[in-house]
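User: Could you go from structure to sequence for me? I need the amino acid at each position, not a summary. Structure tokens:
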């Protein structure tokens, strides 16, 4: 990938118009469908950020990372201006004239792994064990167990259909956590495991366009049935 191609892609992402890192990540993963294909883009991006950080001076903070990533996201003209005059970047940093964070939108290898439903099998089993222990004390925990059993079995559509009910149940379990701890040795203490799982599945695992196949199997993007462990099927 040439620098010109890199900057053309950055410009097409329109960071300056819509500071949405999830949107940028989705667009980049569509353009570069494998970790290997995104590698040249990420390499140039990291070199640009590193050069800008060196020009500004040594700092170590999340906000410093955010402002340098933001300037790269604004495109070649803004980047080269800041590189030539680092005070422009320092002033932007001082007044908070930047958004968090273009860097989040540049995919890592793990983002591609999250597209495969098998990536969630261990997570699902952990949630089943955690909430399963609470079932005798609070039956609402069984809702979360059922939802994550669907995910473990590869039924992503069924998992998605239970989202509202599972989120509500997870919050109720968390609200009663202190009482449950007096009744059982192992109980769930936070709903974030449930919330984060739905966030990742909704963001990364492709949604079938026509629901489930005639046999009830979860289907891929092209309508082809898949089983846990198979990569998403792309048409």
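Assistant: Here is the amino acid at each position, in order:
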């Amino acid at each position: 990938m040439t620098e010109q191609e890199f900057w053309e892609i950055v410009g097409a992402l329109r960071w300056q118009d819509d500071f949405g890192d999830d949107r940028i990540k989705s667009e980049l993963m569509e353009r570069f469908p494998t970790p290997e294909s995104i590698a040249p883009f990420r390499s140039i991006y990291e070199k640009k950020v590193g050069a800008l950080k060196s020009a500004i001076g040594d700092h170590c903070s999340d906000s410093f990372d955010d402002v340098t990533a933001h300037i790269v996201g604004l495109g070649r003209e803004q980047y080269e201006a800041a590189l030539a005059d680092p005070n422009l970047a320092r002033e932007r940093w001082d007044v908070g004239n930047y958004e968090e964070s273009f860097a989040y939108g540049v995919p890592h290898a793990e983002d591609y792994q999250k597209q495969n439903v098998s990536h969630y099998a261990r997570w699902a089993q952990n949630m089943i064990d955690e909430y399963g222990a609470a079932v005798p004390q609070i039956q609402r925990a069984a809702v979360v167990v059922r939802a994550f059993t669907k995910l473990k079995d590869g039924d992503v559509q069924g998992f998605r259909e239970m989202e509202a009910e599972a989120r509500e149940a997870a919050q109720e379990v968390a609200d009663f956590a202190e009482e449950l701890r007096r009744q059982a040795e192992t109980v769930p203490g936070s709903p974030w495991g449930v919330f984060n799982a739905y966030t990742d599945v909704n963001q990364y695992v492709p949604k079938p366009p026509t629901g489930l196949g005639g046999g009830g199997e979860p289907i891929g993007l092209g309508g082809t049935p898949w089983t846990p462990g198979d990569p998403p099927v792309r048409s």
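One structural detail worth keeping in mind: The radius of gyration is 22 Å.
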